[in-house]
């Protein structure tokens, strides 16, 4: 299906590890994996909730060790993103998932940056976002932030991800304050499995500029009004939400309702290797299974540039490409 040029604002690079790459990297470094083949791994991508996914997602990071591994992962994602008409990607990675396995932070960021340079040659610009794990202590996140700063890691911002329920964002306030003082941009997952109040928490306590997922905001009319007034971008991931059973189906997804309420909703893929589709597949699913039409997809894509951390002039240039797409039938 024809999908618009867009920015991808919610993408975990570790979530682009396709089963074939897990097997190939595992073989290259000679570690035993509990999968007979790629199809066997693919058959296990049936999740009951966020945690059941995270268990597999973290386990598979065992195949990422060298800068070359990280470079290949990033480059493969950006190649696929170019096919999906992604013109700009703001890519999260989980430093703690790699530090915990003894991989030096320099190895991770050097590799990711090399992959990003290859993506730029394909016409996909990208920024890197270090995401802290909310189910690990905030003190550890602060240490990781300091290590990233010491290493001169080329990060544009920080985020907060992993298990939401039972893991409040408030303890991370100082980490986000420190990141902001360093000129870093701020985002956080909230309202994916947790309630609308978690969205309010990351806005008020962490001071984030945008919210990853945020779909449960739809349960609270006052919060929806606030998101509209403040034009807070929500980086929504429809296929992810269905696969992790945060919503029952694409047809029942709150995205159209939030868009109709003039919230700055965007469409993204989250962990495309695990959830059955890249960002173009997410746009196509919305077009096929909701009442959203071509103009609505164009609006969502324009929102993705507005909600990006690109300079306003560049975001406007890319938004003009969306308008050209809208008019080309
Ligand atoms: N890490 C990777 N994908 C995630 C998601 N959908 N929610 C929280 N943490 C994540
Ligand atoms: Zn996510």
Automatic annotation (TrEMBL):
Residues 5-325 form the Adenosine deaminase domain. The active site is at 192 (proton donor). Its cofactor is Zn(2+). InterPro entries: A_deaminase_dom, ADE, Ado/ade_deaminase, Metal_Hydrolase. The keyword Cell cycle does not apply. Zn(2+) binds at residues 10, 12, 189, 270. One of its GO terms (cellular component) is cytosol. One of its GO terms (molecular function) is adenine deaminase activity. Its EC number is 3.5.4.2. It is an enzyme of class 3 (hydrolase). Binds 1 zinc ion per subunit. Keywords: Hydrolase, Metal-binding, Nucleotide metabolism, Zinc. It catalyses: adenine + H2O + H(+) = hypoxanthine + NH4(+). It holds the Pfam family A_deaminase. The keyword tRNA-binding does not apply. Belongs to the metallo-dependent hydrolases superfamily. Adenosine and AMP deaminases family. Adenine deaminase type 2 subfamily. Catalyzes the hydrolytic deamination of adenine to hypoxanthine. Plays an important role in the purine salvage pathway and in nitrogen catabolism. This is Adenine deaminase. The lineage of its organism: Bacteria, Bacillati, Actinomycetota, Actinomycetes, Micrococcales.
């Amino acid at each position: 299906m024809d999908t618009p040029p867009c920015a991808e604002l919610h993408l975990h690079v570790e979530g682009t590890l396709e089963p074939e790459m897990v097997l190939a990297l595992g073989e290259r470094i000679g570690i035993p994996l509990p999968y007979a083949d790629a199809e066997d791994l693919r058959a296990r991508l049936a999740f009951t909730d966020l945690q059941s996914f995270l268990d597999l997602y973290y386990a598979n990071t065992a195949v990422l060790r060298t800068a070359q591994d990280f470079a290949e992962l990033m480059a493969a994602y950006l190649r696929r993103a170019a096919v999906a008409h992604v013109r700009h990607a703001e890519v999260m990675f989980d430093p703690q998932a790699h530090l915990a396995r003894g991989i030096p932070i320099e190895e991770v960021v050097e590799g990711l940056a090399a992959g990003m340079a290859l993506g730029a040659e394909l016409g996909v610009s990208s920024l890197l976002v270090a995401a802290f794990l909310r189910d690990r202590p905030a003190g550890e996140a602060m240490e990781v932030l300091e290590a990233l700063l010491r290493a001169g890691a080329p990060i544009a911002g920080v985020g907060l991800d992993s298990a939401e329920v039972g893991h409040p964002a408030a303890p991370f306030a100082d980490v986000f304050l420190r990141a902001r003082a360093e000129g870093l941009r701020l985002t956080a997952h909230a309202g994916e499995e947790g309630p609308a109040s978690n969205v309010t928490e990351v806005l008020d306590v962490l001071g984030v500029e945008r919210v990853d997922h945020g779909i449960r905001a739809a349960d609270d009319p006052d919060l929806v009004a606030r998101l509209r007034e403040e034009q807070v971008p929500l980086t929504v991931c429809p296929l992810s939400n269905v696969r992790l059973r945060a919503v029952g189906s694409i047809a029942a997804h709150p995205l159209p309702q939030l868009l109709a309420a003039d919230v700055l909703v965007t469409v993204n893929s989250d962990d495309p290797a695990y959830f059955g589709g890249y960002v173009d597949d997410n746009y196509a699913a919305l077009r096929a299974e909701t009442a959203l039409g071509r103009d609505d997809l164009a609006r969502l894509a324009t929102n993705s540039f507005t909600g990006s951390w690109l300079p306003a002039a560049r975001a406007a240039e890319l938004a003009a490409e969306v308008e050209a797409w809208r008019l080309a039938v």
